[in-house]
Amino acid sequence: MSSQYFSIHPDNPQLRLIAQAADVVRKGGLIVYPTDSVYAIGCHIGDKQALERIRTIRQLDKQHNFTLVCRDLSELANYAKVDNSAFRILKASTPGPFTFILNATSEVPKRLLHPKRKTIGIRVPDSPIVKALLDDLGEPMMSVTLIMPNDEYPLIDPYDIKETMAHHVDAIIDGGYCGLEPTTVVDMTDANPRIARQGTGDFSSFE
């Protein structure tokens, strides 16, 4: 198996190519795609087999949190419990390079939840490619950072990604170079948001 390769403009994505990439996800395939922080591997929200394939590629254990990548706040609110104070913070910080740990709603498939805490990581990237992809899909994607086992940093060069991932995933979106720094993770499961991981993005409002 060799993956399909889509060269997509980061600011003006070609919708014809986006539709082909979205179709791969719909059919249960894995896709590598660029975000506003790093490259990520994504799959269909309901696909258990695709999820297991990602776990195998990344050598992840059952405790590893997947992230739900959403188009906007209204979609996010289907999957996470958001009170008024949390909503204000989310509104000020999305779209952007943040992952928010929130208490999950019953809409979230059980296998995506943190086993002990019933929480989910949710993110709304500031990326025209991701927005176009999610618009076409009409629902969020499950996602993890594209960092290979034993590597210290994520893959950022589309050429390296193609060389490394061509036989592991079903499609690769080349949107140019991405950053090295992952998202800032903000735990919002109680009244006082706290930074669980400092990454890219301006996190001064959470301190």
Automatic annotation (TrEMBL):
<dbReference type="InterPro" id="IPR052532">
    <property type="entry name" value="SUA5_domain"/>
</dbReference>
<dbReference type="InterPro" id="IPR017945">
    <property type="entry name" value="DHBP_synth_RibB-like_a/b_dom"/>
</dbReference>
<protein>
    <submittedName>
        <fullName>Threonylcarbamoyl-AMP synthase</fullName>
    </submittedName>
</protein>
<dbReference type="Pfam" id="PF01300">
    <property type="entry name" value="Sua5_yciO_yrdC"/>
</dbReference>
<feature type="domain" description="YrdC-like">
    <location>
        <begin position="15"/>
        <end position="201"/>
    </location>
</feature>
<dbReference type="InterPro" id="IPR006070">
    <property type="entry name" value="Sua5-like_dom"/>
</dbReference>
<dbReference type="GO" id="GO:0003725">
    <property type="term" value="F:double-stranded RNA binding"/>
</dbReference>
